[in-house]
TrEMBL record:
Keyword check for Magnesium: no
MF-aspect GO terms: exodeoxyribonuclease VII activity; nucleic acid binding
UniProt keyword annotations, A-Z: Coiled coil, Cytoplasm, Exonuclease, Hydrolase, Nuclease
Top class in the EC scheme: hydrolase
NCBIfam families for the chain: xseA (TIGR00237)
Organism of derivation: Modicisalibacter xianhensis
Coiled coil (residue ranges): 267-345
Subunit structure: Heterooligomer composed of large and small subunits.
Span of domain OB-fold nucleic acid binding: 9-100
BP GO annotations: DNA catabolic process
Protein name per Swiss-Prot or TrEMBL: Exodeoxyribonuclease 7 large subunit
Keyword Transmembrane annotated: no
Length: 447
């Protein structure tokens, strides 16, 4: 080793000198940007990243200053005052924050809300198709090496190992993520149409900051999910993370593991339920067998030999035959007695004598009828004349014959008062003999 070799700095000395140079060179400065990756450990300090669309810087807000700082969250756009420094143990360039002021909503969240309203107005979030449960063949679009795919496969294997799962690996953040995911959706739909390989699609990734999940807020990806012929479940990030892909999908799950639990039933639960059903079936079968055995014993006790039944029927047949013979004999005896009675009556009433008596009665009745008929006719004529005289006495025609008249208007209505007519009106006058047409010249209110 040469004696004139330059003196080497240790890493800690290098970081210390870099911190001193930055703190002396910049001093306090104001920086504006969007909050991301905010962490608040139990110590009371706040650690977060401040970024814009092209760069980012780590920030530390210690507890003594955090108590007086304006509240802020991920996605907020803030202005902060701080010192540029270096965290020596890791050599990280950072800002030591002294004060925080709100500066409006973050640009990413504002862009998210604009896209959300635009796609909702276009109907991209209208999908609500049910996913088959369980699916026959599931396509999973996610990172091939991330924790999400391991969680999904582990849950699916534990709950429903007979499910066919195909992982379509894609990058889940960065510039290449959106086109790769769209191509994977198209490939899954093509294989489903041409080969019938898939009947459901899961798009998933693990948690991260808003910018880490930003690929799933792309409008082209949302439209690709909306136009997918396969029903789509989206499970992006943690439970509190919501992306446009979640809105465009048919079903959303809060986490990758929860998505796997929603997609398939738990075989262990189904096995337990099946065992319960089998036990209930066995108990029902035993109870049914016991009931049928008791019923069989009861029927066996009631069952008699056919010979006994036939003997009973023969005995009853003999009884019915004896009763029939007695009834026939009684009926014949009664008929003989009636016949003898009719013969005796016939001998007492000779037809010739009966005919002679009937002729005598007929002659008497005929004589009486001829004598009574003229008298009845004379009586009825007298009664008719009396009624005619009474009718003629009350007949309006008889009144007309005494010089009175009946006046009628053109409608045939009888005129009873002078005020029922009008001057110049034509009236019909009915007399005892004939009719007259008269004209009203003047009306009088008194007789």
């Amino acid at each position: 080793m040469q004696d004139n070799a330059p003196t080497a700095l240790s890493v800690s000395e290098l970081n210390r000198q870099a911190r001193l140079m930055l703190e002396r060179g910049f001093g306090d400065c104001w920086v504006e940007g969007e909050v991301s990756g905010l962490a608040r450990p139990a110590s009371g300090h706040c650690y977060f990243t401040l970024k814009d669309d092209r760069a980012q810087v780590r920030c530390a807000l210690f507890r003594t200053r955090a108590r007086f700082a304006a509240p802020f969250n991920n996605g907020d756009h803030i202005r902060l005052r701080g010192k540029v420094s270096v965290f020596e143990p890791r050599g990280d360039y950072q800002l030591i924050v002294e004060a925080v002021q709100p500066a409006g909503q973050g640009a990413l969240l504002a862009a998210f809300e604009r896209l959300k309203h635009q796609l909702a107005a276009e109907g991209v979030f209208a999908n609500a198709r049910p996913l088959p449960c369980p699916p026959r063949h599931l396509a999973v679009i996610t990172s091939g090496t991330g924790a999400a795919v391991r969680d999904v496969l582990a849950v699916l294997a534990a709950r429903w190992p007979m499910l066919d799962v195909s992982v379509l690996p894609v990058p889940v953040q960065g510039r290449e993520a959106v086109p790769a995911i769209i191509r994977a959706i198209g490939l899954a739909n093509h294989l489903a149409r041409s080969q019938g390989r898939f009947d459901a699609l899961l798009i998933t990734r693990g948690g991260g900051s808003l910018e880490d999940l930003w690929a799933f807020n792309d409008e082209h990806l949302a439209r690709a999910i909306f136009h997918s012929q396969l029903p789509v479940m989206s499970a992006v990030g943690h439970e509190v993370d919501v992306t446009l892909a979640d809105f465009a999908a048919d079903v959303r799950a809060p986490t990758p593991s929860a998505a796997a639990e929603q997609l398939v039933p738990d075989r262990r639960e189904l096995t337990r339920r099946l065992q319960d059903v089998m036990q209930r079936l066995a108990r029902c079968e035993l109870a049914r067998l016991d009931s049928e055995s008791q019923r069989l014993d009861h029927l066996r006790a009631r069952l008699r030999h056919p010979g006994e039944r036939l003997d009973q029927q023969r005995q009853r047949l003999d009884q019915l035959e004896a009763r029939l013979k007695r009834a026939m004999q009684q009926r014949l005896a009664s008929a003989r007695q009636q016949h003898q009675h009719l013969e005796r009556c016939l001998y007492r009433f000779v037809p010739a004598q009966q005919v002679g008596d009937a002729r005598n009665r007929l002659a008497q009745v005929s004589a009486r009828l001829h004598a009574a008929l003229p008298q009845r006719l004379q009586h009825e004529r007298s009664r008719l004349n009396a009624l005619a005289r009474e009718l003629n006495a009350v007949s309006p025609l008889a009144v007309l014959g005494r010089g009175y008249a009946i006046l009628e208007n053109g409608e045939g209505k009888v005129i009873k008062r002078a005020h029922d007519t009008q001057p110049g009106e034509k009236l019909n006058a009915r007399l005892g003999e004939g009719r007259l047409t008269v004209e009203v010249k003047r009306r009088y209110s008194r007789n």
